[in-house]
Amino acid sequence: MGSASVLSAAVLSAPWLIGALLLDHFLGEPKRWHPLVGFGLFADYLEATLNRDSARRGRGLLAWALAVLPLTLGAWALASLPIIGWVFSLLLLYLAIGLRSLAEHAEPVIKALREGDLAEARLRVSYMVSRQTDELDEEGIARATTESVLENGSDAVFAALFWFALLGAPGVVLYRLSNTLDAMWGYRNARFRQFGWAAARLDDALNYLPARLVALTYALCGRTRQALHCWRIQAPAWDSPNAGPVMAAGAGALNVSLGGPAIYQGELHQRPTLGAGPQAKAEDIDRAVKLVRQGVVLWLLTLAVLWGLLYA
């Protein structure tokens, strides 16, 4: 696929992107029977069956293929059907993005912090992050939540839009399922270090370009020069090749300091500082949510301009 074809496909995807974002805005994430819940149960079964004995890397790759490829091919087949395929593609993209969910998870943390209820804030942020939250102070809670909003904005919103724009329904299914498996299997511990290697690396590959587009988007929607500087200087020191650029640029755009020490599974991790400016506060969580929303608007406006240039 040439660059002109890629650009044309992205522009033509605009109605589906707008439609899915509107569904997400008005309906939010399904409270019951979300397909990813069923997929998670299937992934748990595969892991329990295959994550044992020797050759765990190979078994992990096989598990990833069994979990992701049949559903991706099924999405391609259904999306190819006339009329029904259009509706199916729209619903798939709606289920894959989580812009409203991002705000719905962040708002209770903001509310608890503003009311001085640290116990409730710690509980609420524990739903969003994998680090230990039971000893976080106000700044630690605000920092963890802001980081989660910036990173999940990339994973659960922009990357899903990117892969749909590029490859349609099969693209967003391939990405979203791979990202889910990374969240389930991508841990660097005794249980998953070998088995989850393939899921983690494949998610890194699928997120590589979207993450850098998101970093640029955050920069353009905030303090651009500072965000680009933080991305260039700080991101290489972060342990994730994709979260680093996203969070460094986002922190720089917001003029807030993120990163620093955090406890994961009982172990203290000395993480580098990201961004610049004062430590995060409750209002910075809200500013991060707004940054993600502004980025989505920027992407849609860019597609609208490209539509006009290509089809005027």
From TrEMBL:
It comes from the Bacteria. It is found in: Cell membrane. Signal peptide: none annotated. The chain crosses the membrane at residues 6-23, 61-94, 156-175, 291-310. Keywords: Cell membrane, Cobalamin biosynthesis, Membrane, Transmembrane, Transmembrane helix. InterPro entries: Cobalamin_biosynth_CobD/CbiB (IPR004485). Pathway: Cofactor biosynthesis; adenosylcobalamin biosynthesis. PANTHER family: COBALAMIN BIOSYNTHESIS PROTEIN CBIB (PTHR34308). Converts cobyric acid to cobinamide by the addition of aminopropanol on the F carboxylic group. This is Cobalamin biosynthesis protein CobD.
